[in-house]
Amino acid sequence: MLQPNDTALSVSEVNRRARQLLESGIGEVWVEGELSGVSRPASGHVYFTLKDASAQLRGALFRNRARFVAAPMRDGDRVRVRGRVSLFEPRGDYQLIAEAVQPAGEGELLVALERLKQRLSAEGVFANARPLPCPPRHLLVLTSPTGAAIRDVLAVLESRWPLARVTLIAVPVQGREAAPALIAALGLLNRQQALDPAQDVILITRGGGSLEDLWAFNDEHLARAIFHSRLPVMSAVGHEVDTSLSDLAADRRAPTPSAAAEMLVPDGRDLQRRLVGLERQLVRCTQARLERDAQRLDHLRARLRHPGEVLAQERRILGELEARLQRAGRARLAAERQQLGYLQRRMSACHPQRGVGQAGERLALARARLEQAMLRDMSRRRESLAGLARQLQAVSPLAVLGRGYAILQDDEGKVIRRAADTRPGQALTARLGEGGLSVEVKRRLK
């Protein structure tokens, strides 16, 4: 028995010994449970609690391991965690240091379902989108005869479209027998369509339930049977949040059985109200049309006269027009004769022979005046050219060169004006009055 004077351990020492015992006594283990309280602080670590029906265990997944976990960790997921049991000494917290996390139970099913969904989508199984007739001539419902789904569907159809023709094909909607029974029913209905062309829509439906209850509608073969169905298919499985492979493969999906019935048929009451409105509009339009036609008939009746009166009036008008035409013809003929006489007198006065003689005289006179003007202009231009030549000779640099001067140019043709612009040894060209010289600068004189 320990005595009061025995050496006491510190809290840190107790926690250290407890950690060592836990790590050496249990070691690395797999632990399965449900995630709860998942948190992800800015550090990148993941902290969580694993629990079952009677206990719970704190856990930590550090950042260097968290990046290798493929599926996100969410509250409620059932997982298997591999790690070592340890103790966080500063707080004395007993915890599981996780090394790997895998989905377990339902989580594995969901992962497999997601892979199957991606594969079917890549194959085009979810590409159906054929239009559904509204309302259908013959609706084929595949569901349980005792479930709430068929009661909801029939209640909605009765309230919205009592004329709907519905055939119930009783099939199990839960368990192992459900998917094969649905596939067989789809095949039978597609074969019977040739015998009854009025069958035009298939509705696959059931009420909500757990994932296990709805799992039959995630069957790969059922999804392919829906995809290959010649009859268009509507799927309404579970509640609004449930989405199965049957929903994705169908031509159209409804969130609930009741919503499916509402989407399949129009509301008869709305159609009745529309028909009443159209009937009233038709009556009003018909009455207005009859009134307009009656007024037009009265107007035409007032304008209508006996054919004899019309013919007599037309004869009088024709006689007046004939007399006006004769008067106008005689007046036009007299005016044309007068115009012809006037043009003949003008043509005689302007005979071409008279014009040719006058033009010849004017041409001879103009030729003489042109020759005199050309001689005077040439004389004036010669005098002007001589004056310009004298002016050019006076200012021409060639004249200066002729008096013994020379022009010096460098190899670029630039004129040298100052001795400072040259350098000893530079080659220059001297242009004289007649010819030129190549010279070299020996030295410059100040």
TrEMBL record:
Keyword annotations: Coiled coil, Cytoplasm, Exonuclease, Hydrolase, Nuclease
Reactions the enzyme catalyzes: Exonucleolytic cleavage in either 5'- to 3'- or 3'- to 5'-direction to yield nucleoside 5'-phosphates
Domain of life assignment: Bacteria
A Pfam family that the UniProt record links to this protein: Exonuc_VII_L
Enzymatic class: hydrolase
Domain called Exonuclease VII large subunit C-terminal: residue spans: 128-439
Listed InterPro entries: Exonuc_VII_L, Exonuc_VII_lsu_C, OB-fold_nuc-bd_dom
Protein location: Cytoplasm
Enzyme Commission number, as recorded: 3.1.11.6
Primary location group: cytoplasm
Coiled coil (UniProt feature): 311-338
Domain OB-fold nucleic acid binding: 9-101
Assembly mode: Heterooligomer composed of large and small subunits.
Function (record text): Bidirectionally degrades single-stranded DNA into large acid-insoluble oligonucleotides, which are then degraded further into small acid-soluble oligonucleotides.
Family designation: Belongs to the XseA family.
Name of the protein: Exodeoxyribonuclease 7 large subunit
Organism the protein comes from: Billgrantia bachuensis
